[in-house]
Specification:
The protein has about 625 residues and is an alpha/beta fold. Helix content is about 60%, strand content about 15%. Helix 7 packs across helix 14, helix 10 runs antiparallel to helix 12 and helix 15 packs parallel to helix 16. It is elongated.
């Protein structure tokens, strides 16, 4: 509600809400229309007195002018006080009260001219009295726009005075026609007043609805702005949480893989030196358990990378026949251990070469074949590859993995691809284990590649998983990065190697692994120490940890390449336990010669060393003399 402030002769309004239309009541609007500066009233009152004086009623004119001026002053003050008190006041009651006030004021206006006409009775004075009466009726129409009471309170005294004058002047019988005409005039005025009040009240109702709507819209706007601010804050909080999550995953990946590097590295060293079959079996169990623990960690990290949008799909030409055969050959040993037949059916209509991310497709199919082997105790497992054309340059390749294992209840199939869910009963879960992440990751990887994954199964009748991928037909084979990494390497001549790592166990593992191949290893525990050694003596190869205190491996490489020294062009292999922020391609782009991940696998490390030395200057022959 707006609040009026006024001083004598004027009215202003202060609004509660900036820019909102004021919400006036009919009582307030009527009061506002009746308030005028005192000076205007006094001029009008003086003019009435002058008119009466010119008509020969000097004393009556002076008395009327003074009485009206005093009455107008008092009434304006009263109207201003009513206006100040009007917010919250009962509008109907206020209008009734105002009608009586206006009736008294109109009576005072008409009394003077009526008295003058009665005293003198000449035509000019009578006509003047009628003109004053018409003026009051006009004022009634203006002031009574919202209330018939106010209209008749203002116009009533003038009409009654005219009717009384007619009766006094012409007698009851002679005045009858005039009274009838006056009655007709009053009916007309009543109709006009009624129509005006109806229209103004409808306008007032519409205005109030508009004000109410504006209030609702303003509230809705404020709520929307608050929600937007909350959403912005939530998005920012989500970004902060995502950054914190990424940092946490990178740190935990490093922290978990670092001790695993020591466990796996030492286990591999023990495995190579052990001749007792019982001890070999125990060490193999230790290595397999470590690899299983790492597979769980990799599943969790894959989920996180997919959620963060950091899982990139890299398409390369792939020999489909060779890809499928290598896939089956990998699992033949495991299938033979369980007494299962592992078969491959390759559709002759399938193209020889396609563009696909061999690493991710292999990851999906490894998970499906691994599950089939896990849940199948007898019978066979079949891997089938078929294709159907999409257009001249694209096909839809279907990889199917079928088994004769436990099977799945159709009611449980929908939850198969949800995270941390397993469709087996509790006894089967306890028997076979698993995290329930493999199929969820497979589904997300397949969808990232634009394909679909589905299952057909029944309890006791085995299961068939289908992976359908839209792939482009390739013109010829290509060697993928993974194949290059896995390619057999020739024996490497003895090298002088600088191993840089902030973890003493990792340094010990690297030293013993490389020493077993005849290489000479020098240790450095951080980047500054490594740069000092690299500036003082020549090395054939540097194995550089990435996450180190004081100076990261990336910064150490940049300083090494920027400085003039004996090792400015020496190959540097990145060693990292962080598999979240990037892989081999990332570190090659940063200037490293190659990359090996932790925990260190002997074959992977030696392959990375061989690739790093390929094309590098020949190892310095001084190693033999130094060793001697």
């Amino acid at each position: 509600m707006s609040t009026p402030t006024a001083r004598p002769g004027e009215v202003t309004w202060d609004f509660d809400v900036e820019g909102a239309p004021p919400s006036y009541t009919p009582f307030q609007l009527t009061l506002s229309g009746l308030i005028f500066p005192y000076q205007l009233h006094w001029v009008f009152d003086a003019w009435i007195g002058v008119c009466l004086a010119l008509l020969g009623h000097l004393y009556v004119g002076v008395a009327v002018a003074l009485c009206n001026a005093l009455a107008d002053w008092a009434m304006q003050r009263r109207l201003n006080r009513l206006l100040l008190a009007s917010p919250g006041a009962d509008s109907h009651r206020g209008l009734r009260r105002l009608a009586w006030m206006l009736a008294g004021r109109s009576t005072l206006y008409i009394v003077g001219p009526a008295a003058a006409a009665t005293l003198k009775g000449d035509a000019r004075t009578v006509i003047y009295a009628c003109i004053v009466a018409m003026t009051l009726v006009s004022m009634a129409i203006a002031s009574g726009s919202f209330s018939k009471r106010v209209f008749w309170g203002t116009a009533g005294p003038a009409i009654v005075t005219v009717a009384a004058g007619c009766v006094v002047g012409f007698g009851p019988v002679g005045a009858a026609p005039l009274i009838a005409a006056l009655a007709s005039f009053c009916v007309t005025l009543g109709l006009i007043s009624g129509s005006t009040v109806k229209v103004m009240n409808e306008w007032d109702g519409a205005h109030r609805k508009t004000v109410q709507l504006i209030g609702h819209l303003r509230t809705a706007r404020d709520a929307a702005e608050a929600e937007r601010a909350a959403a912005d804050e939530a998005r920012e909080e989500a970004r902060r949480a995502h950054r914190a999550k990424s940092n946490f995953l990178a740190t935990m990946s490093h922290e978990i893989r670092t001790p695993m590097n020591g466990v796996m590295g030492m286990a591999q060293l023990m495995r190579g030196a052990e001749t007792d079959p019982r001890q070999v079996e125990r060490i193999d169990t230790l290595i397999q358990s470590g690899e299983y623990l790492l597979s769980i960690l990799n599943d969790i990290l894959d989920i996180s990378k997919i959620d963060a949008g950091k899982m990139d799909i890299q398409l390369r030409p792939e020999d489909l026949d060779r890809f499928a055969r290598r896939l089956v050959v990998f699992w033949e040993g495991k299938a033979a251990e369980k007494g299962l037949d592992l078969r491959l059916h390759l559709d002759e209509a399938a193209p020889h070469h396609v563009l696909m991310d061999g690493l991710r497709v292999r990851q999906v199919l490894f998970n499906l074949i691994g599950n089939a082997l896990k849940f199948t105790d007898a019978g066979e497992i079949t891997v089938a590859v078929a294709a159907e054309p999409i257009d001249e340059s694209h096909v839809r390749v279907r990889f199917s993995v079928s088994d004769t294992g436990l099977g799945i209840d159709p009611e449980l199939a929908p939850v198969l691809f949800e995270r941390f869910s397993q469709a087996d009963d509790e006894s089967a879960v306890r028997r076979y284990g698993g995290t329930g992440l493999g199929l969820a990751i497979s589904k997300q990887l397949v969808e990232l590649m634009g394909g679909t994954i589905s299952v057909e199964s029944a309890p006791g009748r085995g299961s068939t998983f289908h992976v359908r991928l839209p792939l482009a037909i390739a013109q010829g084979p290509a060697t993928t990065g993974d194949e290059a990494a896995a390619a057999p390497v020739e024996p490497i001549p003895a090298l002088r190697v600088l191993a840089v790592d902030d973890n003493d166990v990792n340094l010990l593992v690297l030293e013993q692994l490389l020493s077993a191949f005849g290489h000479q290893v020098t240790r450095a525990t951080d980047g500054p120490e490594a740069l000092t050694l690299l500036g003082a003596q020549a090395f054939d190869l540097v194995l550089m940890d990435i996450q180190m205190p004081r100076m990261t491996g990336i910064e150490a490489l940049q300083r090494l390449r920027a400085a003039d020294g004996p090792n400015r062009l020496t190959p540097v292999v990145a060693l990292t336990a962080d598999v979240v922020s990037g892989g081999r391609d990332k570190y090659l782009a940063l200037g490293f010669s190659d990359h090996a991940s932790k925990p260190i696998q002997i074959a992977d490390l030696m392959a990375a060393v061989a690739r790093a030395m390929d094309g590098a200057p020949a190892p310095r022959p001084s190693l033999g003399r130094d060793a001697a």
